[in-house]
## 1
Amino acid sequence: MAASLGRICKSGLLKSNYGTLFSQQVHNFSTANQWSRGRKVLLTCLGVTAGGISALIYALDRSVTASELIAHPPNYKWDFYGFFNSLDHKSMRRGWEVYKNVCSACHSLQYVAYRELVGVTHTEDEAKALAEEIQVQDGPDDTGAYFMRPGKLSDYIPPPYPNEEAARAANNGAYPPDLTFIVNARHNGENYVFSLLTGYCDAPAGIQVGEGQSFNPYFPGGAIGMAQVIFDEVVDFEDGTPATASQIAKDITTFLMWTSNPEFDERKRLAIKAIIIFSTLTALTVYWKKQKWATIKNTKLLYTPRKQ
């Protein structure tokens, strides 16, 4: 009897101790786990906050730094902005006149062929006449000699200088860039080109401009080697459009927008065609789906339990 009672008490004591220890271990584990999750959340919040503060400090520092002396051009409402708007071909033709009479003295369009003007700014006969105004070295002939011939539609617009060294020597060390892709090569290209052409002004106090340079706030550093070339009536448009400075800058910018993106209008046409085709296909698919699933969706399913 005593032995049986002792075994029972011992068993109860052991169960009580082990149960208490187990419950304490579980409590400690859950507490540690909760603390671990809370610590992770805290560290995550601290990291996000620190990153946000660092980004804010960097943005503020960049906004007030004096290392980048440049004015950001405003965004103008160009005719070719908009999903369904194309380039103004009359403006592009006037832009060609501006390039030919003003810009071609220093800048090249070496990646534009005369044939690309056909149907864009000129007719085929007009483009041929423009090409024949230049002389192109060709050959060799039957005697092995090279000769000069009038230009063809397949020829590219010749540069004003034979090489970069000659261009720098003629422009006080500055190299006039090729204008073929100038709009794509500059941030906010069309607005930058227009603002640069119309933004010449006197240098403010504290800004030093070297000899042969002009001040333009839209050019990095402010000092630009190109003098102001856009003035009122610097060219006479053949269609009678008033040649104001802003009109001239607008037309040459539109023309350079085309040279940088010759597929601009075609891309818009393809987008419109794609919208029409995919809209039609979507409507037909929705109609077919409704017809195909109408019977199944309108079918009522009933469940009748079997009688025992």
## 2
Amino acid sequence: MSNIDHLFKNNRAWAEKIIEEDPSFFDTLAQQQKPEYLWIGCSDSRVPANELLGMMPGEVFVHRNIANQVIHTDLNCLSVIQFAVDHLKVKHIIVCGHYGCGGVLASMDDDSYGLIDNWLRHIVDVHRFHKEKLDAITDNTEKFNTLCELNVIEQVANVCNTTIVKNAWKAKQELTVHGFVYNLADGILKDLKVSSDQQSLTR
């Protein structure tokens, strides 16, 4: 069995550093969480929500899955959205994809990857919705990046069309849904300019 003692050592060093900077941090954190943001991102280990936003634990409520999907039959994702919107009263939902996404790339070929093929089918559908636009792109990297962006835009629409978000908007709750893409090459977020609130519902 491989040794994971280094993880506990790293954890202790991290906790000690936090306490050194703010002695009351963990006492305050343990009382409650009041994040203003729900982050729906990819499970990719290179895309850590808190770190790339420059935020501390307790500031971002996070849900992650392969290729940042929001599927209307996924009770896991929907439960996270419901808790974030109805109980935590987050003000922003961020759907964040990233360039170089393995899930998006896998959806672009005809190979079989096992169980995940069923999950990737939703990205294949995004490709189908935008087939004309994507087929017109001859550079494979540009096509890949464009599909990463289109996938985020589609998931933003899916968030907006959940009964959870629609009901929040009907109740005049302050809530905006955003679509970002993260660039692994330079660490920079790109705003896809598809933010929606109760005044601008996405289809």
## 3
Amino acid sequence: MSSGVEIINGKKTFIPIENNPEVLSRLSRNLGVSTALTFHDIFDLNINNDTSEISLPRPMNALIFLCVSPIFDPVRSHLKSTLPTYTGHGPSEPIIWMKQTIGHACGLMALLHCILNLDDGKHITSGSKLDELRKKVIELPPKERAQALYDSQFLEDAHMDAAVQGSSSVPSARENPSGHFIAFVKDARGKVWELNGGLPGPLERGELGPDDDLFSPEGVRLTVGEFMDVAKTVDGGWGISIVGLGVDKA
């Protein structure tokens, strides 16, 4: 196994990854994702969740969101018992969702949920290992799909290389991260999806028009809006971070 990976309580466990553009960019390049896909810190959603004054590449149809448990739990913890267990597979499914079975890999899972689904996976380099994995997991039912990710050495290597590149001190696999990673993706049909490998399945949040992306007012409402409202009451909103995925059209 790669340095830093441990088996804890019978489960492969990674070093937690930071939610910052540099680390996620390195991870995506390790996975064979086009350099046209860019990552951007989003700091200044104001008290009204207004995005009109924030300059970012548009459209922005994927977000990686991280929040601490005191923010996540009031908004989403009930879904573990009420959201139907996902059983879908095959190319007719509207979204690729994967259960997380690797410890502390929620950042990797959020990135995978974004890049496997954004623009129907077109930013993945054709013929790469990730391209092969995407084609494989689409056909697999959820349990086997999760096992394919668990067994993937190239995912492990890519994650561990990026995980030691963060701006803060590198934790060990035995440290318990306090945050929850969530991916939000607008698909080619305008549906907005919340994708969290720690929940029983994907959550359809609503639909956006062709002129709206996830950083439009309606897009914010359908994605991070509820979490932002709770964040304002917890530590002044410091318990969150958001990275947006844009596409360089140059």
